[in-house]
Design a protein that fits this description.
globular; 194 residues; 7 strands; 8 helices; 41% helix; disordered N terminus; Rossmann fold
Length: 194
Amino acid sequence: MVRLPRIVIPGYPHHVTQRGNRRSRARMVGMRNESQQMKTVYIESSVISYLTARPSRDVVTAARQAITLEWWEEHKTQYEIFLSELVLEEIGSGDSSATQRRLRMVENVPILETTGNAIGLSKLLIAEKAIPETSTEDALHIAIAAVQGMDFLLTWNFKHINNANTKEKIAGIITDSHFKSPVLCSPEELIHER
């Protein structure tokens, strides 16, 4: 993976990192009044993978790809979207042409900093058995989104992140830790009616 220089951008309420030529809209967040402020969305790696993957013959996967493309093209502008260093690491591995497609797709998306609080919260999610020990990355995605005050965490990961059996426990651990729990949802769940 190509490493770009790290620049920290002060933004309310987020700690945002800018890489290379990435332009951050986070500076504008604090300048809007509350009625104009857009909701924030942390984009987890699976969304980018579905967005850039070659069309699938599998009916479920193909439907998710189409929904993801619709959300990205028609709905993402209704939100402030963010990634993390972890997302960049995950989408930056694998087949080089697929990696390039994924990284190009998010080249202008602001990067949230992974803070000590996020690392601590991810460990707590695992210790409290909300997320399995083998899924430290999933716990860290959730923790970064929570600590950075994101409104939504967008994912196609139904096994450990957007799981009806664990969402309540995850939210409880986050709020008990004095952070706001993001809504864990898929692109399909975050499509606005017109």
